[in-house]
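The protein record filed below.
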Amino acid sequence: MRYDYLIIGAGFAGSVMAERLASQFDKKILLVEKRNHIGGNAFDEYDEYGILVHKYGPHIFHTNSKEVFDYLSQFTEWRFYEHKVLANYQGDLFPIPINRTTINKFFDLHLTTEGEVKNFLSTKIEKRFPILNSEDIIINQVGRELFEAFFKNYTKKQWNLFPHELSPSVCGRIPVRFNDDSRYFTDKYQFMPKDGYTKMFEKMLSRKNIEIALNTDYKNVLNEIKFDKMIYTGPIDSFFDYEFGKLPYRSIKFDYEHYEKQNHQSTGQVNHVDMEEEFTRVTEYKYLTLQEAKTTTISREYSLKEGEPFYPIPTDANRALYLKYRHKTEQEKNVIFCGRLAEYQYYNMDQVVANCLHFLKSKADTI
């Protein structure tokens, strides 16, 4: 058996590439995945209590791209869902991202207009220029008091680095609002797959010219497989056997707990921003999936140095190390590197899908 493409990794990047190459270009695909399931970190399953949970933490779909939404709509129906997050600071709950409600509650104010909020924050911010790190970008937006309360310690727990040690892109992804909008995202399309992500991936990969090998490390079978081209979505440093050293990631440990009650908390996600608690956030999955049940399951997340690679750590030194590996990819004429791990880049799910669709369109003549 000879395959047109050997694809490493069955997450969003590998699965979208497999589906498009099979359906639009009639290519024969072998999709190899080291885990025992498809879907990558978006994998979901029912726990022993019948609650649909995300095994690798909450995955909230949101996008402004009609192209991405229409593409994924081929493989799932949707449930409308707007994610809301609260921060637990010293036992009290505040909306995140910071908005007028957060500011009024934190400072015991009664600001009523966006102009009043902007004027108030102008008395708190410290103008920083140039913006060199995540501390600069937040203090430049909201000032030191809100930074100390909601960002400094939470960032340290999440990354084991303080904001001044991280790229501006980390905290810069979180907006500041001058109104009472408490939605975490403001994208045009905010939905969750009606039957879960795993069912969506199953449908995506159901074509007869896609074969899937689970529980398989591609390096153990590489010499046994005949293929023309490879698409690699795993860690780029692993592909090159860590020639220049290991790229650092943050990993996560999930502790799940089930409760014999309707709900455990008042929203789907609560961030615990104080150092007194080791965990970073608590997710209650019924809010996300809109599942109706008389009991509920939560997960607590603990950030770790070692383990499954979840988040690339965006520092200048790590970027320089990644670029060494990326330079080596230019020598791999029949290998395409794509996705979070292969590009050492934090992408939202819709960004991965968009990148894959655009790549295949741009290379349509050479596939």
Notes: The two ends are 20 Å apart (CA to CA). The mean pLDDT is 97.
